[in-house]
Amino acid sequence: MSTLPNCPSCSSEYTYEDGTMYVCPECAHEWAKEGEQEALADETVITDAHGNILQDGDSVTVIKDLKIKGSSSVVKVGTKVKNIRLVGGDHDIDCRIEGIGAMKLKSEFVKKS
How many C-beta atoms lie closer than 10 Å to residue 81's C-beta? Predict the structure, then answer.
């Protein structure tokens, strides 16, 4: 009898351990072991374009003109964004830009103010 958890993606019972991860051979989904998830979350550090570590509530400045998808608007170089919130994923900064509204930014296009 296996004590390994079922796959959270497809509920397969044929999971196996691979180092600090569980792997499902049926759907190829990989996930961290319970104790390892917190350690992985703590290791994730988001930095700006110059390597400065960003934190929730920081102010940043945009370093490149950014076109807004689905709109003719542009976020200009030098736009200051206050009180950012860090989130996971490709666009790792959630913020509100004055005159434009809520949007997500990539940390590679900002510098810490």
Answer: 21
